Amino acid sequence: MRTRAVAVVALCAVAAAGARAEEPAGLDDAALEAIVSAVESTATAVDRSWLYNDPARAPAPGHAVGFMRGTYGGGSPTRPLAGNLATAGALFEIGGEVGLADGLSLVAIGAQGDNGAGSGQTGAMLGLRWSLLPRTLRKTQLVLSGGVLRELQGSAGAWARASFGHDEGRARFAASLHGERLFATGRDKIDLIVTAGATFRVLETVRAGVEYVGQDLEGTFDQEAEGGPRHLIGPMVSAALFGQRLSATAGPALAMGAGQTHALGRVALNYQF
After folding, report:
1. Residue 273: other Cβ atoms inside 10 A
2. What are the domain boundaries of the chain?
């Protein structure tokens, strides 16, 4: 409704200006660009096509994105983040992100799954996300975020993340560096998680691609308290529906490292309010 109102106001302004100048009916390129910019500045498309990578776009102020993720398979320590390598069984996540100001949003996630001992536990993640680049740079995005978390094992901690995104024609690329510190004895001083991915638009609303996750990478260079590095790679496909307000993504993956190799799968739904 808000977007339509903006477009109507812009059209009326242009029409009035044309009438005063007694110009022929129609819109010049500058007028059309102004209308499109006005509409796009309040656009609410989800456009979130990743399973593991952190989205590099934040909701517009006053808008929100609700999401659900389900993961099955694994056997590694699990945290309630997009980049985890799954639990010993099933993991269910539900959360949302709310635009607070231009480029600033609040994100909250709750997770239900099994801890390392196979017992059902609840985790949570809370933080702020800040988009550093202006919206005029539509092809490239950079987001810094951070906050607090409680993993399924019961330990509390703090986290920070840098997320990068870039669109080039039909191709889309993403990468992120995530670090966290858990306030518990016997844990690493810092845990590092890296994600990367690339997708290609195969249909107007369908994308297909591949994603990678590297967890506990600090163990590559130093003694690691949680079993060593783990890696995940897998294909994925996503579809944007209802004017990109609803996004559905799914795909299998293969997790390797720390003395084990196993398959897992994940599905995700996002909806823009």
Report:
1. 12
2. 2-38, 47-272
Residue 6's SS3 state is helix
Output the DSSP codes for 58-86.
-PPTT-EEEEEEEEE---S---SSTT---
pLDDT tens for 129-138 read: 999 988 778 8
pLDDT at 19: 46
Run of H or E residues at 27 = none
Three-state helix/strand/coil letters over 211-269 = EEEEECHHHHCCCCCCCCCEEEEEEEEEEEECCCCEEEEEEEEEEEECCEEEEEEEEEE
CA pair distance 65, 44, nearest whole angstrom = 9
pLDDT tens, 161-174? 999 999 999 999 99
Q: What is the pLDDT of residues 61-90, one digit of tens each?
A: 999 999 998 888 755 444 544 445 445 567
Question: DSSP character for 139?
Answer: S
Residues 163 and 176: their CA atoms lie apart, in Å, by: 4
- Residue whose C-alpha is closest to residue 159's, from 227, 51, 78, 81: 81
Instruction: From 102, 92, 165, select the one nearest 123 (Cα to Cα).
Output: 92
Supply the pTM of this predicted model: 0.76
Is residue 88 a contact partner of residue 74, using CB atoms and an 8 Å limit? yes
Record: fold of 47-272 = Porin (2.40.160)
Residue 18 reports pLDDT greater than 60 = no
